Amino acid sequence: MIRIEGLTKSYGAAQALRGVSFEVPRGQVVGFLGPNGAGKSTTMKILAGFVTPTSGTASINGIDVSVDPVASRRLIGYLPENNPLYEEMMVRDFLDFVAEVRGIPKAKRAEKIRSAVERCGLRAVLGKDIHQLSKGYRQRVGLAQAIVHDPDLLILDEPTTGLDPNQIVEIRSLIKELGKEKTVILSTHILSEVQSTCSRVLIINDGRLVADDAPERLGEREGGTVTVVLTSRTGASLHPEAIRSMLAQVAGVTGVEQAEGEGSGTLGFRLRYGAEDIRRSLFEAAVRHELCLLEVKRQHVSLEETFRKLTGGEGPRGPREPHVPPLAA
C-alpha cells in the first residue's frame, strides 16, 4: 500500500528527512513515532500530497504521489493534528460538503455518509453545529470526514491530542475497528496508544528511520530485567556483595542492583540484560555456587525505554561489577 524510497526533505539549510525508506502492506496498522522535529509530520504530509520531497519517492498503491497527486489523494483519508473543521456548519451539512468535494456521486452520497456516521458514532449529533460539540465528538467528525469516501489508507496525525481518558479509549477503539479493513498510519506521542492499537512500529529520529518492528519485539531486542530471589542450598550465610559480584559475571548481564528478598536467609537482586536471554546462564551459575533460585521474574524493556534509547533520551548504563569471593561461608 505504501512504498517510500530514499525520501529527503530540506527547508533551506535544515534537513527534515535524510533518506527514509520503508514499505507498509495492505491492512496493517502502523505506529509512526519520533520526538518533536524528527520528521514524522513531514513524512505524513508528503504521503498526503501537501509537501513535495526534495528527493526520493513516495507511492500509494503504486501511484507516485508527486507524479499523480490527485489519483493518490483519492486513496487517502487524512486527519491532521489540528483537525480543521468548519465549526459554523452542522455535522450533517459538513459531511455532505466533504462527500461532494471528494467526488462521491449524489446518488451514493447519503449511503456513504450514513456508513461514516454509524462507524464514528455520530448519529446523536448530526443536527448540531460543530462548534457545539465536545473535543471527543469533534475528533469523531474528523475521522468521519477522513473515511466518508471509503479510502484504502488512513493517515492519522495525533488523533487523541487534548482528549480526556474516556474519549481516548473511544477513539482508540474506533481506530482499531477501522484497522481491520484499512491500512492505517498513526502518528502519536502516546506510546501506550501504539501498544494497544498497532501491529508495527516505525521510529524516526533526526530525519532517519531508527527502528522498524512489532511493539513487543522492539522490547525483546533491547533486553530488560530479571528479578531473582536466592538462598543457599547448604544453609550457609550469604554475603550480599559477593552474590552481587557473582551475578554481574553471568554472561549477558549488564548491571546488578539489590532488590527485596523473602525474609531471613534470602537475597533479592534485579539484573539488567541486553538482547541475550540470561536465564539459562543464571541457573547454571546458581548451581555451580550452591545457590537455590526461589524466584525468577523477567520483564522486557518497555516501549518507552526503547524509544528513549533510540532517540537519544537514555543515559549510559553502569559498568559491570568486579569479582569479590567468597559467595557463602
Automatic annotation (TrEMBL):
<keyword id="KW-0067">ATP-binding</keyword>
<dbReference type="GO" id="GO:0016887">
    <property type="term" value="F:ATP hydrolysis activity"/>
</dbReference>
<feature type="domain" description="ABC transporter">
    <location>
        <begin position="2"/>
        <end position="231"/>
    </location>
</feature>
<feature type="region of interest" description="Disordered">
    <location>
        <begin position="307"/>
        <end position="329"/>
    </location>
</feature>
<keyword id="KW-0547">Nucleotide-binding</keyword>
<dbReference type="InterPro" id="IPR027417">
    <property type="entry name" value="P-loop_NTPase"/>
</dbReference>
<dbReference type="GO" id="GO:0005524">
    <property type="term" value="F:ATP binding"/>
</dbReference>
<comment type="similarity">
    <text>Belongs to the ABC transporter superfamily.</text>
</comment>
<dbReference type="InterPro" id="IPR003593">
    <property type="entry name" value="AAA+_ATPase"/>
</dbReference>
<dbReference type="Pfam" id="PF00005">
    <property type="entry name" value="ABC_tran"/>
</dbReference>
<protein>
    <submittedName>
        <fullName>ABC-2 type transport system ATP-binding protein</fullName>
    </submittedName>
</protein>
<keyword id="KW-0813">Transport</keyword>
<dbReference type="InterPro" id="IPR003439">
    <property type="entry name" value="ABC_transporter-like_ATP-bd"/>
</dbReference>
